[in-house]
Amino acid sequence: MIGRFVSRLFGKRPPAEIPDAPWQETLARLPFLGWLSADERRRLRDLVARFLDEKEFTTAGGLALDDRMRLSIAVQGCLPILNLGLDWYAGWVGIVVYPAEFVIPRSVVDDDGVVHEYDEVASGEAWGGGPLLISWEDVEMAGEGYNVVIHEFAHKLDMLNGEADGMPPLPPGMSRRAWEETLLDAYDDFCDRVDAAEAAGNETEIDPYAAESPGEFFAVIAECFFESPSLLRGQYPALYAQMASFFRLDPLAPER
Fold first, then answer.
1. Can you list the domains of the chain with their CATH numbers?
2. Pair 138, 169: CB distance under 8 Å
3. How many angstroms separate the CA atoms of 39 and 34, rounded?
4. Residues 221-240: tens digit of each pLDDT
5. Which tens digits make up the pLDDT trace of 124-166?
6. Could you read off the pLDDT of 55-96 as tens digits, one per residue?
7. Element (H, E) at 195
8. Which residues form a coiled coil (predicted)?
9. What is the C-alpha to C-alpha distance for residues 125 and 159, in angstroms, rounded to an integer?
10. Which three-class secondary structure state does DSSP give residue 33?
11. Is 216 helix (H, G, I), strand (E, B) or coil?
């Protein structure tokens, strides 16, 4: 059954419905999706089928990729665009899955013009106009606020208008000025919190990696928005409201 599902899903025919058994198994492994309504789950399922039909999965490091892994990545990756639409992921097709963290060669030029080359260990990487790289080991850590899939797909949204700087294109009706002011005010406050926590030998509840840059802040906050919405709204209610407007989705809506 699954083999036929994959051949149809990745072939030239219109995307087939995702079989119920693997769909339910995936939802069970991702309990943070429990706040979705029945209608939202149905629409997410349709969106995931179309996503799988359009994107191409490859592996590196000897990883054997199967349907369960593709489906898990697709479900988490499509959650942020549930009410935005698949066009927000247009312009790229490749998803490269590594078995665990991987090494990315980097080079930077200092103020004196000297080039410094080094290797960076990463769990995910989103390239503007190119593929998305991700560690399967980290994919399986989804839950309790850490979600490498949502993080990297948030970068993809951010890159739609250039660099990943925390300033993605906004849906109609949103104020660019309000978004920038809210996000940057929260970012500055969060950096102060991280500094204070480190000085006290503690760690912030929200991943301190968010203090790296406004772009990383947006991606980490997206993780928190979908996985730990009460935490985000409790610490940054104005930013939570902006994220709900951006994604056109509110995990803490009263009707839930």
1. 1-144 (1.10.472.150), 165-256 (3.40.390.10)
2. no
3. 12
4. 999 999 999 999 999 999 99
5. 889 888 899 999 999 999 987 799 999 999 999 999 999 999 9
6. 999 999 899 999 999 999 999 999 999 999 999 999 999 999
7. helix 176-199
8. none
9. 12
10. helix
11. helix
Edge to edge, the sheet with strand 94-98 lists 56-59, 94-98, 132-135, 124-126
User: What are the residues facing 95 on neighbouring strands?
Assistant: 57, 132
Cα torsion angle, 51, 175, 249, 122, sign: positive
**Token pair belonging to 149:** 């899939």
Residue with tokens 């247009």: 90
Residues 6+ apart with CB under 8 A from 90: none
Its pTM stands at 0.89
First CA to last CA distance, the chain: 35
The amino acid that residue 157 corresponds to is: L
Task: State how far the Cα of 44 lies from the Cα of 57, in Å rounded to an integer.
Answer: 19
